[in-house]
Backbone:
């Protein structure tokens, strides 16, 4: 069964940190990303990692967020530092069953598999 399960969300004060995890099962994922969606807004790409492990980030999170992947555990991570209120959103893990190459954010439509999301709330 193909499944992605996120964890690690929660409530923090501005300036705080959180680490999100996304455990994959049923498939070996090599092309993965984190998206987020705030109320009333479209889902947007936050960070992505290609099949060679090259990361890419949205301008709004560069220097604050770090994406990484543990291939042995089939798990994706997002280390989030210096959080601010604008980071408040539901965060989703996404994966593509094939390979992808290139350090750039791919659109929502290019990912086949999605987790249920984990909520991040940042209070100012």
Residues:
């Amino acid at each position: 069964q193909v499944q992605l399960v996120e964890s690690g969300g929660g409530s923090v004060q501005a300036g705080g940190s959180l680490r999100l995890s996304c455990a994959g099962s049923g498939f070996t994922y090599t092309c993965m990303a984190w998206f987020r969606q705030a109320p009333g807004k479209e889902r947007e790409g936050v960070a992505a990692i290609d099949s060679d492990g090259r990361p890419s980030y949205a301008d709004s999170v560069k220097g604050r967020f770090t994406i990484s992947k543990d291939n042995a555990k089939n798990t994706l991570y997002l280390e989030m530092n210096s959080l601010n209120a604008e980071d408040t959103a539901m965060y989703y893990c996404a994966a593509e069953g094939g390979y992808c190459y290139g350090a750039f954010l791919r659109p929502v439509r290019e990912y086949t598999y999605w987790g249920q999301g984990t909520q991040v709330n940042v209070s100012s």
Notes: The longest strand covers residues 18-25. The chain is about 0% helix and 50% strand.
